[in-house]
Design goal:
By secondary structure, the chain is α/β, with parallel strands linked by helices. The protein has a domain of 149 residues: P-loop containing nucleotide triphosphate hydrolases (Rossmann fold). The protein is built from ten helices and nine strands. A five-stranded parallel β-sheet has the order 2-3-1-4-9, with helices on both faces. A two-stranded antiparallel sheet has the order 5-6. Helix 4 packs parallel to helix 6 and helix 7 packs antiparallel against helix 8. The longest helix has 15 residues. The termini are close together. The structure holds adenosine monophosphate (AMP). The site of adenosine monophosphate has 18 residues, from helix 2 and helix 3.
């Protein structure tokens, strides 16, 4: 196997980034860093980072670039991500974040996988998304009126506080404006793989593995 891969996973809210990153992390043995999970845990635990970011999360706004990048750099250093590879989920979210963290040539990453899922599909998925507030375990319920489902650890997976229809609309609009341009940014640097994110999670996972294999980031087996 080549060096542990450094992968950015892009995609609008509800595209399946968290689900696919959890699978990829287990498959590749590479750490998964979700800035959203990191921030939610910090808010829940009342840490200094949590206090700094809580208002942005509540309002469905982006945390300022320098603050996010500083937190991610600190986390990356503490976890030794330079040597272990990484899967970045929900980061970078703006071109400024990408340039600060990956360099203007994008050399800090091997590939950006963009999960392509249309807006109407993600809106419908988010309405049915239930997330465990303790460990981030996520599932999609069949019936959107079901408020809570038990997660494997025995906690209740519930709707995220920022998954209200109003906050979702705001976050999706922000995505188009701030994060959408990252697709072309990675493409210009020869780093983008677009993957169809609609369909069964197993099929989407196979598509992602196919894209990584084509880039020589997986052993051929
Ligand atoms: P997510 O779980 O990725 O949807 O992130 C939840 C919230 O955390 C977002 O709505 C933002 O307020 C904040 N957040 C997560 N990642 C970033 C980032 N890279 N830049 C700015 N804000 C972020």
């Amino acid at each position: 196997m080549p060096n542990p891969p450094r992968i950015v996973v892009l995609g609008r809210q509800g595209a399946g980034k968290g689900t696919q990153c959890a699978r990829l992390a287990a498959y590749l043995g590479v750490p998964h860093l979700s800035t959203g999970d990191l921030f939610r845990t910090a808010v829940r635990d009342g840490t200094p980072v949590g206090v700094q970011v809580a208002g942005y999360l509540e309002r469905g706004e982006l945390v300022p670039d320098e603050l996010v990048v500083g937190i991610v750099q600190e986390h990356a250093a503490a976890e030794g991500l330079d040597d272990r590879g990484y899967l970045l989920d929900g980061f970078p979210r703006t071109i400024a974040q990408a340039e600060l963290f990956l360099g203007s040539d994008g050399k800090g990453v091997d590939v950006a996988v963009e999960l392509d899922v249309p807006v109407d599909v993600v809106v419908e998925r988010i309405a049915r998304r239930r997330v465990c507030p303790v460990d981030g375990w996520t599932t999609i319920v069949d019936d959107p009126s079901v408020a809570a489902v038990p997660c494997p650890d025995g906690h209740d997976a519930v709707q995220r506080e920022d998954d209200t229809p109003e906050a979702v609309r705001r976050r999706l609009a922000l995505y188009e404006r701030e994060t959408g341009p990252l697709g072309p940014w990675f493409a210009q640097r020869g780093l983008l793989e677009r993957v169809d994110g609609v369909g069964d999670p197993d099929e989407v996972f196979d598509r992602i593995l196919g894209a990584l294999r084509a880039r020589g980031l997986l052993s051929a087996a």
